[in-house]
Amino acid sequence: MKLHVNGKQVEVDGAALEMRLVEFLREELDLTGVKNACDIGACGACSILINNEPLKICIKRVKDFEGSQILTIEGLAAPDGTLHPLQQAFVDCGAIQCGFCTPGMVMTAHAFLLKCPRPTRDQIRKAINGNLCRCTGYQQIIDAIERAAPHYPSGLQAAASAESPVGSAHPETATLSTVGAS
Ligand code: FES
Ligand code: FES
What we know:
The chain is an alpha/beta fold. It has six helices and six strands; from the N terminus they run ββαβββαααααβ. The chain has a single domain, classed as DNA polymerase, domain 1, CATH 1.10.150.
């Protein structure tokens, strides 16, 4: 079975198919940005993008994502390490404190801004409703999303960008790897 993770193709077989996707990404692919917190789909810390839609993956199995385009926080920055404007906005606005919620929050916000690049603060508030943060009080997070919004294309450009497998992220050159636990 094939997955597409941050622009790379990954082949999966054997027992790995039965793993929860959050564990697979963290333990087999070393993508530890995605967090496993509540384990019941309640907090949003495990949010990533599947085909440009945000999804909490702590209760999902690898085998359910055949052919899916998966984007994690590691796929947002440019290959040279330059932060995505949304990541930079989180830094600049002080929207990161302990940081545990941040990858899920950023990915949820990224999916939202791809679809709604000129949001009101109320729309932003609603968009991150399913992502919990114990530290910030949310205001800096909303500030950051608002600050990053002008970097997202609007109108027809937004539609074209949303059709792209990984949105406006910076896909790395595709490589093939195989992951299979026996
Ligand atoms: S860890 Fe998945 S929603 Fe909390
Ligand atoms: S920054 Fe600590 S939970 Fe959000």
